[in-house]
Amino acid sequence: QVQLVESGGGLVQAGGSLRLSCAASGRTFSFKAMGWFRQAPGKEREFLASINWNGGTTYYADSVKGRFTISRDNAKNTVYLQMNSLKPEDTAAYYCAQGRGNSCSGPGCLWDYWGQGTQVTVSS
After folding, report:
1. In the beta sheet, which residues pair with residue 113?
2. Pair type for strands 18-24 and 4-7
3. What spatial distance separates the first Cα and last Cα of the chain, rounded to whole Å?
4. pLDDT, tens only, 63-104
5. CA 72 remoteness from chain centre
6. Residues 35-49: pLDDT tens digits?
7. What is the CA radius of gyration of the chain?
């Protein structure tokens, strides 16, 4: 069983930055693609970014491209989401997920495990 625990959320002013972390348990992290999603109240869950098993390939939703960066440290079983130039519309609960395969090129991948989420609130 894989457990994913997100951290790093909080309250930030528009234009600011946050770095989210997602720590994974288990032995499969280094072999799996990882992704970040978010969900705002009353809205569907939105794919943000994915990264393949070795960090060599990343994919971003248009809404965050150029502002957010996904990365991973397989030695620490952790995936990160660096968020810059935050906007009020980025306010949401942010979730990480572990993919079924070792690579992923967008939201259509299969995601086997999810974290509980961390709240990000951007004030104007």
Report:
1. 98
2. antiparallel
3. 40
4. 999 999 999 999 999 999 999 999 999 999 999 999 999 999
5. 10
6. 999 999 999 999 999
7. 13
